[in-house]
Amino acid sequence: MEAPKQQGLVRPSRFPLSVILPTYNESQNIVGMIDSIAYALPYGTTAEIVVVDDNSPDGTADIASEYGKKIGNKKVHVKVLRRQGKLGLSSAILAGVQSASGEIVVVMDSDLSHPPQTIPRMIHELRNSTCDIVVASRYIKGGSITGWPFKRKMISKGATKIAKYGLGIRHVKDPMSGFFAFYRHIIDGIKFDPIGYKMLLEMLVKVRGARVKEIPYTFTNRRSGSSKLDRAVMLDYVKAVWRLYRYGRANSSEKRTSVRFLSKAGRFYTVGASGLLVNYLASLFFTLTFTGLWYIHATIIGIMFSITSNFVLNKLWTFEDRDFALKKTLVQYGMFTGFSGFGALVQISVLYLLVENEHLDKTVALVVAVAVASIGNFLLNKKWTFKEKVWS
């Protein structure tokens, strides 16, 4: 695969390397971060450190600026970009890249979770191998995460799976990494979403022909300050994935496997939602019609009705199987029912473990349990009940 061709004019480089540090309330970490980067740089390498601050109320920008003047030397130059509000991580990184003068750009967090000691190897890989982007990866052999609670690991793994399979980025193990390096010219002419979530994710979708290499590193959870992960960030991620999905679909000449897979998954879960209504209506009908019927028995009947309706709808609509030969249909129905029962057991087990062992909030635990059971149910039925390849 050919390397991306340079588009437009390249600005003369004052520094061979630019390190982008987006910040918000990182006053406790920024000095240590600058020192660590300066110390880690290979002998003879000069660099600029671009601190992009979103108007931190704790004075991060002032601290970085003053410290940059204090240590000003020929090896490291600190540039501070002050923005007028909390405008978001992706747009901060993009602003830093646009102001960078280095031919090589390194993007990393400013909370000491990304080890600057990895930078020399990233530079070496870019200069001595045939790659355009180097990703510091938590999920390849040798990479790891320390200090994260179970809930955070689950969120990260889930987001990574969505990116890999939903956007078709299966050649990169850690597409959600916030620690990466690239040649600046490969993004010339690329229009980035200013309210995106992860710049690397967007690059992997939009930079055609980019050659990527992953190297392992250990992510260490921040020791000072507070995490920026909240509901707004997660919502931004969902929006970003949807935009990138539509971008990839609009710029693809063929119907991708991921499109078919997500379409069937969407149908399967829609059918599942309809089954809840069937379950409720059937249970209510038998409870009101047969006054002597115990409500538990009525509920069991409702469950069987919903399983049957789910099976028929999934056979016809989700998996487009219109062969209703008696033997085949009975075998499929038996397998579907068995997997549905297995999924219920998985849901209950996961819920119990998360609440009792991990002390997770019951609502959050229920969402995770339902997600795990539903995904398993879909994949098992896809492969075994309806005899399809999992990724198709």
Alpha-carbon distance between the two ends:
24 Å
Helix content: 40-55%
CA-atom Rg in angstroms: 26 Å
- Mean pLDDT value: 83
CATH domain class of the largest domain: Alpha Beta
**Count of helical regions:** 11
* H and E string: EHEHEHEHEEHEHEEHHHHH
Q: Which structural category do the helix and sheet elements fall into? A: alpha/beta
Look at the structure and name the CATH superfamily of the largest domain: Spore Coat Polysaccharide Biosynthesis Protein SpsA, Chain A
Give a quick account of the main beta sheet: strands, pairing sense, barrel closure.
Answer: 7 strands, mixed
Sheet with most strands: strand arrangement: 3-2-1-4-7-5-8
CATH topology of the largest domain: Spore Coat Polysaccharide Biosynthesis Protein SpsA, Chain A
> What is the second-level CATH architecture of the largest domain?
Alpha-Beta Complex
The percent range for strand residues is 5-15%
Which features would summarize this protein structure in a list?
alpha/beta; Spore Coat Polysaccharide Biosynthesis Protein SpsA, Chain A; disordered N terminus; 2 domains; two-stranded parallel ribbon; 11 helices; 7-stranded mixed sheet; 11% strand; 392 residues
